[in-house]
Design a protein that fits this description.
single chain
Length: about 100
């Protein structure tokens, strides 16, 4: 019975980790979405023929480049978080399977 308790505790820990990773992933997605919107606005401004001249275009280009620099690491982070979540979910599934096997024995 001690093994089942240990597996249950380990499963609960992993589930907490999965929730934490999921929350981090969602936060990164929201930030990513915000940056995409900002980038879209910057692109629209850059393509607007009524813009106020070269200095404004240079400013937009600078802002767009800065946003892209922020966005790229976030894309990587989101991808890594997603991989972690999938890995943790697999581990939780394996713990459930091990727990079920331990209970039936």
């Amino acid at each position: 019975m001690h093994r089942v308790d240990r597996l249950q505790e380990e499963k609960e820990e992993r589930e907490k980790e999965v929730v934490s990773y999921y929350n981090s992933l969602e936060k990164a997605r929201v930030e990513n979405q915000d940056l995409q919107v900002q980038l879209g606005h910057a692109l629209q401004q850059a393509l607007d023929p009524n813009s106020k001249g070269n200095s404004l275009l240079a400013e937009v280009d600078d802002r767009m480049a800065a946003m892209e620099r922020q966005l790229n690491p976030m894309k990587i982070s989101v991808s890594e978080e997603a991989q972690c979540i999938h890995q943790r979910a697999d581990e939780v599934t394996n713990l459930h399977t091990a727990e079920d096997a331990g209970i039936s024995n």
